[in-house]
Structures are given as structure tokens and as C-alpha cells.
Amino acid sequence: MAQHAHAKKPNYRNIVLAGVIIVLIIVMAVLLMSSCGKKKPEPVPAGSEASRVSDNGSVYGSEEESSSEQSSEESSSGSSESSESSSSSSSKSESSSSSSSSSSGDTPTGKYAAMPETPYSYDTTGKSVRNAFDANGEVDLLFPINSTYYITRNFKVAKLEKVDGDYKMDYRAAPHCKEMLAAMRTKLNSDIRAFSTYRSYEYQEGNFQRKVNKLINKGYSKTDAYNTAATIVAIPGTSEHQLGLAIDVYLDSLYNKYGELNEHFEETKEYKWLQEHAWEYGFILSYPKDKIKDTGIIYEPWHYRYVGVENAKAIRDSGMLLVQWLESQNIVYVYNGK
Question: Catalytic residue among 74, 81, 300, 327, which?
Fold first, then answer.
């Protein structure tokens, strides 16, 4: 009797297992190809053109952080005293964390080094010497705050006055700032407003550290993040805002479009008007586009510093920065404050 051959039953377990292995291999290959295709963000050299641009093409402005947060801090200070003791608890916690972080020992030396806690000294040989502060402790209107002439944590603005909402400035600059804003609103039918004015030392620390942290989160090393942040947000102790003599002006329409202060402000009628008339109110543009290498700070068409009407006209006509104009006049400052 002939034997019939029986076909082998397929081993479904082995088939399923082989299928799973194949799928896993494909998934791993896809993941590997994807990770290889992604570039880790490269640190951008401080002061370079690329260091000034965000992912959406906007310029990282000095007020990239919330301007309303600063306004809240300012409104908590006394009308005639720059008291930081009344800052909100959230601001205090940020400032505290920024202080400990910035003193971690990983900040660089040289051009972008953190400012010392002691007053600066300067060689006055053969120079026309001016005191940084007068008998009342008020800072000189031409004091060129920067990495050479800085202020310490002990500095306090003698008297602040409101200029726009809760935003405040040194009482000597405030009336002129209010007149300038009012003129723009009337003559240009503009909704121009203050986005940043006076900042305390602690606020500036928090502002600076937030920028450093953002860059670190983008892939920068701590040192590169610090150096690049210093071209965007002034190192604490070197900001004109801390003197109460500077204002950032801007438009809500632009802020809502770009999410931060942006170079497109130079295309507005407000900017063009400021170039012609800011000096008439005692203000100068602090960080021009053609002076980036000199200032070490990004171009900020929104940032204006009060120096007094006569000084503003002389500096504007010279085509120089404030510090360059002072050098041309052979003027240096000695630190005679706390």
C-alpha cells in the first residue's frame, strides 16, 4: 500500500518572531538615519551676525523677555526710591538663582567677564576728570556705563518718575521722555509705547541669566552661551537701563508679529522720526547698526539713552557713540560712589 506524503504544517510562531525582528530592524535603521541627519546646534561666535538672529528670523532684543514682568517689578518700587526690597517673590527667586549660577566659576574672563563687586579704577593722567556721581548721589548724565565704567550692586537711582504706565526713569529724563512719546503719538498718530526703562541690578541679573539658559538649551556650551548673551543682554552692572536713563520704545503690532523686539522697527515711521528728533528731547541712539563692533552689542533701533539736549545734539552731529565722543573730549570718570 503506497504511503502518502504529508505536507509540513507551517511554524507560525517562527514566522511571527521573524516578522517582529524585521520590523525592529527597520525601526532601528530609521531612528539611526534620523539622528544622523539632525545637526546639533553649533555655538555662534559672540558678536557675529548669526548670533543676533532667532529661529524665526527675529532679532533677539534686549527685551526679548517679558516687558510686562519688568513693569510689574518697577511698579513695586517706591516713586522716589529704587527699592528692590519690594520686588515680587518670583523676581527674587529668579534673581537668587541667577546670582548663584553666574558665580559658578564657569563664566569667562576678558571682554565679557562679569563685573567685579568693587568700584572700577581708571588712569586719569592728563585727562579731564569728572565724578561719576554728584553730591546727591545722582549719576552724571554722560556717564558711559559699559565694561570699563560699570556700577556695583550698591548703586541706587536717587529718584524715579513714571513715564508710561508703570515704567519709570530717572526724574531728570522722565519729563523729556514723556514729551517725546506724546509728540510721536500726536504727530504720527502712533501707538508707540515704552517696553523697558529702569531695571534694578537684580532684575538685570535675572534677565541676563534667562538669556544664558535659553542659549544653553539650544546647544551652546556655558561659556559660548555667556559670551553670546553678553552681546544681546548687557552684563549686570553695565546696562544703561540700570541708570534709569534709557528707554526701549516699540510697537505692539511688531511685538505681536515677531514675539520680541526686532530690527524691523527701523522700517517704521516712528524710527525715522526718532532719527530726526530724538536729540531735541535729549536722547541718542545707543547701539547703531554701524557701531556693533565698537559697542559689542547687537543693533538696537529701539534703545535710546538720555544725555540732555545740548549733549545729544553734539553727540548726534559728531556721528560718534557716547563713549567715543567722551574720548574725543578727553573726558574720563572716577568712581566716587559706594
Answer: 300
